[in-house]
């Protein structure tokens, strides 16, 4: 068993070893030699994609008409074991912990909350539990899990370092991921696509009803934050976050209505001269860029996958003990705007929320002036802003 194979893929000793294995395997079939029963090569990069990695690193130059996928030898077998934890696996782990510490936790509820954020990704599951145990006074509640997630989202570790490096180094993967997360594009789960295969190999993509989805909520937030940071670099001359956090947070409470109003003001000041293509590509990202530093440290947000599309995106913001539902929408006329109220009300019902926020981008050639307003519908309140 050889670890970190992908980091030694261009080492001559390693390549010589692979050649030796192949020769022994073939000679064994002819009865001239004996070989290993099995050899395990452990690494992040699938061996059939090693050539892609070496090319990206400038270690090799692909010849004309040469394929990008290959295996150093032709006897490799796929490893098809699912390494992620199921909710039952997390429950079992927490039961063992509870037997030792007697915290009185609701094991099923805590396991479910951990799974919501991690989808069973082993490192993330273990890290959340570690933070609860060591940094959060053994707060084994749903709130404790969320507090651990906040810590995890801001920390530096090898997993997140590799993620940012991969997004930085592989242009196709970066743009493909951005189109899903930020632009709301739906992509088919088609492993014949080398970019999809690459994202699956790194553990970033999963199959959700035949569509590509980011494999877990924590990866989704970290990746979105990566694109926000890139967006800030792109707009250094027009930095939109021109509001002090103290204006939005009063007595420890986040004022989402004021945040959206301030965003609308800055949006008009800085980007009113941009064209429709700019708005459609950057409007949502600008709002996330505006929001992220205001909630950083005390809260976090995630984008609901089931509502992400080119016309609609629901953002859930957790700040302290408060949760805010913000729907971002493209203006498609008055009747469609009424439909947006109903969509948001339905989503608010699913979250047992009485208050929601609707931020609509109007790209029409002759947009009407709209003032921010509170709308009362079916016993609930929606703060409606159109820019």
Provide a descriptive summary of the structure in words:
- By secondary structure, this protein is of the alpha+beta class.
- The chain folds into 4 domains: 1-79, no CATH class; 87-154; 158-214, no CATH class; 235-386, no CATH class.
- Helix content is 48%, strand content 14%.
- The chain is built from 14 helices and 10 strands.
- It has helices at 12-29, 50-56, 87-101, 107-118, 122-134, 142-154, 158-169, 171-181, 194-201, 217-234, 245-248, 256-271, 276-295, 334-350; strands at 205-208, 211-214, 249-250, 253-254, 299-303, 312-319, 322-330, 355-361, 373-377, 380-386.
- A 6-stranded mixed β-sheet has the order 5-6-7-8-10-9, with helices on both faces. Strands 1-2 form a two-stranded antiparallel ribbon. Strands 3-4 form a two-stranded antiparallel ribbon.
- Helix 3 (87-101) packs across helix 4 (107-118).
- The longest helix has 20 residues, at 276-295.
- It is globular.
